[in-house]
Amino acid sequence: MAWFRRRPRSGGPGGRPVNRADLEHLTQFVRSRRGVEAFIEPQTTVTETTLLLVAHDGEWTRRRIESPEAARRFAHQLSMPVYDVRLLGYPQRMRDYNERQRRRPA
User: Fold this and answer.
1) Which among 2, 9, 15, 27 would be 20 to 30 A from 21, CA to CA?
2) The whole model's pTM is what?
């Protein structure tokens, strides 16, 4: 039976090629905020490799990226530190930011 056969992927190593708008969004985030650090989130069965950017105050954004190597290149081009989420985890300031946003009145 071929019910569970995976469809062939097209594009880069992560599947679809990265959208130029995604890279522009990440670049704009870095240029408009202080103390931004990059965190590489690995590909899973549900999601492709993503790059998480976290600013000094915990504000964050996430976009799909081709591969961990592409994420490292992107971070180095913009002179920001880059970490692997599997090794370091998520920064506390990001969790604090999420908590502040959750408590904020609607």
Assistant:
1) 9
2) 0.82
- At 3 the pLDDT is 59
Quickly count helices (H) and strands (E) in the chain.
4, 4
Instruction: Return d(Cα 94, Cα 41) in angstroms, integer.
Output: 15
CA distance 42 to 62: 12
pLDDT at 12 over 60: no
Q: Is the dihedral of CA 100, 33, 82, 47 positive or negative?
A: positive
List, in order, residues 6 or more apart from 77 with CB less than 8 Å away: none
Which pair of structure tokens corresponds to residue 69?
């190597």
What is the rounded distance in angstroms from the CA atom of residue 52 to the CA atom of residue 41? Answer: 7
